[in-house]
Amino acid sequence: MAKVNAKKAIVEAPQQTAPVQAAAKQTVAGLLQSMLDTEKLRSRFEELLGKRMPSFMGSIVSMVNEDAYLKEAFFNAPLTVLQSALKAAAYNLPIDKALGFAYVVPFWNSKTGKREAQFILGYRGMIQLANRTGAYEKLNVVDVREGELKNFDRLTEDVEVEWIQDEEERSKLPVIGYLGYFRLINGFEKKIYMSVGAINAHEQKFRKGSKGRPQIWIDNYDAMACKTVLRRLISKWGLMSIDYQRADAQTVQIAQDIASNNVDDEMTIDMPQEEPAAIPEQTAAEMPAQEVPVEQYQEVPPLVPFE
Fold first, then answer.
1. Is the pTM above the cut of 0.90?
2. Residue % of the chain over a pLDDT of 70
3. Cα 44–6–270 angle (5° rounding)?
4. Mean pLDDT score of the chain, rounded to an integer?
5. Tens digits of per-residue pLDDT, 140-158?
6. Does 28 have pLDDT greater than 70?
């Protein structure tokens, strides 16, 4: 895998598009190819993807065509879709939403008054990035069913659970929370428990301007709940406890991005519930130039080596 600084890859994306040059009506695939050439993004994707670029571009086309909201975002703010895909490519994660590694999610930007796209890291993607650091011996999040939680100490965060062994009977019981666990290669281990109520409160707290739960939570509640627990577990206890002095630059960057939540923009979602706007019949040449929103990154403090 190429060693690429994901933050640099996104920030250096072009900041303003030129009119897409074409004389006939464009399909999503045609417009995508025209933009890659016009905006000089092709070399960036080729640098990140190599021989996998054709299949990745095919994933973008399929993804846009299958989602009316995302298609609206693609025609209204196409570079937000490409930037989101570029971020996934920088982390070497597939964007097929069925796989659960990364998502390109349409959302309503109340500041610009149009629908745009945004990168969302999936639960499996977070596990993948964490495992690439080589820091973890074990890493997992599981649901906890009614009757299984025996004790939870809020001070020490020690959790006592008695698992129901009969899977058929267990599946009939409601989920009351999620339990995350990791063991590092140096032997340090940690558990964290979040109730369903706490997870729902977290999602609602960071839901901006939405009349209801974002669709990604509706369609993927279990995965999003697991990721919420995993992100809290890792950012609080995991990556900051590892000595990265011998790690390569990409490993350190991934570790820093996870610890500071820079790989996950979930908390900026602002999605109204109205139907997607109809895509106007226009040629690619008629499409106006778009302003590219430049993602802002906070400076990440240096990791503290484990003593």
1. no
2. 67
3. 100
4. 75
5. 999 999 999 999 988 888 8
6. yes
The answer to whether the Cα torsion of 264, 270, 274, 279 is positive or negative is: negative
Tokens of 41: 């993004």
Tokens read off for 30: 């045609």
Place of tokens 């960036």: 44
**Whole-number Å distance between alpha carbons of 158 and 121:** 28
Return the residue matching tokens 């996934």.
88
Longest dimension (CA), the chain: 67
CB 144 within 8 A of CB 162: no
Q: What is the pLDDT of residue 52?
A: 87
Distance CA 235, CA 226 (A): 14
Domain ranges of the chain: 6-286
Q: Which of 55-69, 133-147, 239-253 has the lowest mean pLDDT?
A: 239-253
Burial of 275 (0-12, 13-18, 19+ CB in 10 A): exposed
The tokens of 225 are what? 């709940």
DSSP string across 188-253: -EEEEEEEHHHHHHHHHHT--S-SS--HHHHHSHHHHHHHHHHHHHIIIIIGGGS--TTS-HHHHH
Helix ranges, the chain (H): 6-11, 28-38, 42-49, 53-65, 68-76, 78-90, 123-132, 167-171, 196-205, 215-219, 221-233, 249-259
The answer for residues whose C-beta is within 8 angstroms of residue 237's C-beta and 6 or more apart is 182, 190, 192
User: What is the C-alpha R_g of the chain?
Assistant: 21
